[in-house]
Amino acid sequence: xxxxxxxxxxxxxxxxxxxxxxxxxxIYHMKRALLVSNPRLYRSGVVSSIGxxxxxxxIRTAEFFSIGAVPSFxxxxxxxxxLLEFEPDVIVGIGGGAAMSAAKALWLLYENPELNLKDAAxxxxxxxxxxxxxxxxxxxxxxxxxxxxxxSVLKDDAGGTCVINSFQLLPEISVTDARFTESLSPAQVxxxxxxxxxxxxxAFASSSCSEYTQGLLREAxxxxxxxxxxxxxxxxxxLEKLHNxxxxxxxxxxxxxxxxxxxxxxxxxAAEKVMDHERIExxxxxxxxxxxxxxxxxxxxxH
Length: 303
Description:
- Helices cover 48% and strands 13% of the residues.
- By secondary structure, it is of the alpha/beta class.
- The chain is globular, with a radius of gyration of 19 Å.
- The mean pLDDT is 94.
């Protein structure tokens, strides 16, 4: 049976983070929150502002931000003692794909302390979550859409990429609040936008892409093509459009792809130009273009 799996609650408006976080005390009656982020965001004050709001609501907080650009098994092991000692009833991932991947994996380990993450990647049916704590993901950039996807992208002990894919990793609440994107540099905006664009087109081309996920991906592609240049100039409306585009794409990825790889070059590569283009041709026409070559030109103009 086909299903469209999404987080239980999805917030996607400027200022929505405040509303979503209030629910942790008012609706869920949480008492302890572990905030998971990266060092840059910790230094920027984003994490501390969220921590202050939670503490005003009577929620005690602890923080873990010792993660690399791709969270490693070693990073997660270093955070596990604090996690088990603090015993949070909610884990809040704050940041981009790395921070949200780390939060998902820590949540998984908290629920299953004896679990081998490598085994979880190879056999995700063994994964269970939601008994000890809830997961909340607050996206501060728009490259991965991880707040709405079931993927946790990690680095194993051998240095290889390990992707855990399970709908058990979808958060209770996902937050796509474009206020957090205002501090992104033009280079970061461009890289995030091109990542969303490239992954969305490739996901659309997948044979497992359904009528439901096609709609999400089509709108994500349209939003990036129409707004990336303005977002690079700092236009708040364009930044919000891109942030929402990544959220749409993230929701689609998990419902149509077995894994995810954000290290591949931006679309289109030379190899992709000689592949079967039936589905991409359809996408180009859906976007009002005369053919696939126009889509290629539009994508390359943004590189």
